[in-house]
């Protein structure tokens, strides 16, 4: 089993983004997709069944199973993780597990305390480091077994994970404004030094570098899915200026915002 793709969709609101994520689609043989919703209002249709999306909703879809996401309230946009996994022909046990799960239900409500788990899964599962990818594989496998036995906890985990969970929520909810290290540690009631050490241990980067990465990812999404000018995107993301946004964006992606928009619009247009 491998994680083929993992994305974080923050506040699905731009017209082209809504259109893309609302399309009816399916995946190939041995490909299963997990959607985990953190906030917003909408509908998730899989096969002939339509579910209401609520905080903590999780949906599992099978190969070739058509599914679509519909946002029903743009004042409360959807935010979610999507993870695409592919099994190996030799993964008989995993295939049996997934098939049994899908016979029972496509839908689960696991609560909103798995933000850190899915973010870690995304970071590790797409890493160039093979050991981190293996780690993500085992974490996902454990999650699926717990899901099948209805053993996932909707309450809090250990104290360290809870701190990271709350920090991620603050960062993700303030992409279009500004949150400081002091804001986070004051909310968590821990020291800056302890939080930086804890965050770096769990996420392999510092809190503010990670927060900047989230803003760059949001900017990349807007460059592709909206007609906003670069300076307008910079302003919405609370960068000091268009130049500041462009410099930070290039540091993270290797290209300027305009180059990124031109290149990826051609890719998405062709596909």
From TrEMBL:
GO molecular function, one term: isomerase activity
Gene3D superfamilies associated with the record: Homeodomain-like (1.10.10.60), Jelly Rolls (2.60.120.10)
Domain of life per record: Bacteria
UniProt KW DNA-binding keyword: yes
Every HTH araC/xylS-type domain range: 165-263
Keyword Transcription regulation: yes
Keywords in alphabetical order: DNA-binding, Isomerase, Transcription, Transcription regulation
SMART domains: HTH_ARAC
Annotated protein name in UniProt: AraC-like DNA-binding protein/mannose-6-phosphate isomerase-like protein (Cupin superfamily)
């Amino acid at each position: 089993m491998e994680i083929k793709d993992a994305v974080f969709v923050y506040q699905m609101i731009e017209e082209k983004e809504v259109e893309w994520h609302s399309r009816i689609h399916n995946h190939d043989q041995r490909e299963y997709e997990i959607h985990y919703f953190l906030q917003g209002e909408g509908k998730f249709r899989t096969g002939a069944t339509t579910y209401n999306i609520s905080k903590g909703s999780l949906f599992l879809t099978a190969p070739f199973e058509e599914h679509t996401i519909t946002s029903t309230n743009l004042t409360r946009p959807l935010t979610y993780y999507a993870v695409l996994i592919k099994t190996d022909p030799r993964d008989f046990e995993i295939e049996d597990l997934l098939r049994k799960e899908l016979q029972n239900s496509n839908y689960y409500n696991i609560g909103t305390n798995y933000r850190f788990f899915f973010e870690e899964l995304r970071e590790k599962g797409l890493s160039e480091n093979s050991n981190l990818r293996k780690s993500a594989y085992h974490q996902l496998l454990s999650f699926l077994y717990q899901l099948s036995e209805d053993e996932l906890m909707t309450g809090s985990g250990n104290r360290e994970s809870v701190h990271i969970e709350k920090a991620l929520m603050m960062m993700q909810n303030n992409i279009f404004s500004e949150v400081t290290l002091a804001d986070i540690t004051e909310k968590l009631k821990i020291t800056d030094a302890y939080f930086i050490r804890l965050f770096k241990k769990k996420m392999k980067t510092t809190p503010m570098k990670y927060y900047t990465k989230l803003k760059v990812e949001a900017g990349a999404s807007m460059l592709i899915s909206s007609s906003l000018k670069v300076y307008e995107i910079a302003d919405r993301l609370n960068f000091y200026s268009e130049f500041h946004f462009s410099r930070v964006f290039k540091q993270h992606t290797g290209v300027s915002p305009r180059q990124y928009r031109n290149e990826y619009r051609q890719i998405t247009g062709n596909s």
